[in-house]
Write the structure tokens for this entry.
Amino acid sequence: MTGQPITLQTALIYLMIVVAGADQELQQTEMTRIGQIVRRYPVFEEFNVETMIPAMRDCADILSRDDGLATVFGLIRSAIDADWAETAYCVACDVAAADGSLRTLERRILDTVRSTLGVERLAAAAIERATAARWRRPTADSR
């Protein structure tokens, strides 16, 4: 895929791949989370799951180019309008939280996602807090 328009669902998959790869490494927990999101979130109800892997490969191909990240963000921005921006940010946060911690590179990419999608800071903070609460795991002290 080059600069052709993509669907909302494909843009969300691209977004999840960008967030998962923020630390230069796609972890199994992140890939599992992406699959869970695609299977469970209402935004993907009409999405053909068989196109998920090809969409991931398309995204990876674009990212491997010199201007890949900018190109992917351009595609994401053009496919996700303001009505879906907070949903997209929620999806991004869920993938970032998959491994149980939010590293500096993931925080930076979430800032870029928030800015790219035009999500207000207060809304982003609420989404981040809800994500942290939803994916929190018990520790030995809290059991």
Remarks:
- The helical segments are 8-20, 28-40, 52-63, 68-79, 85-96, 104-117, 121-134.
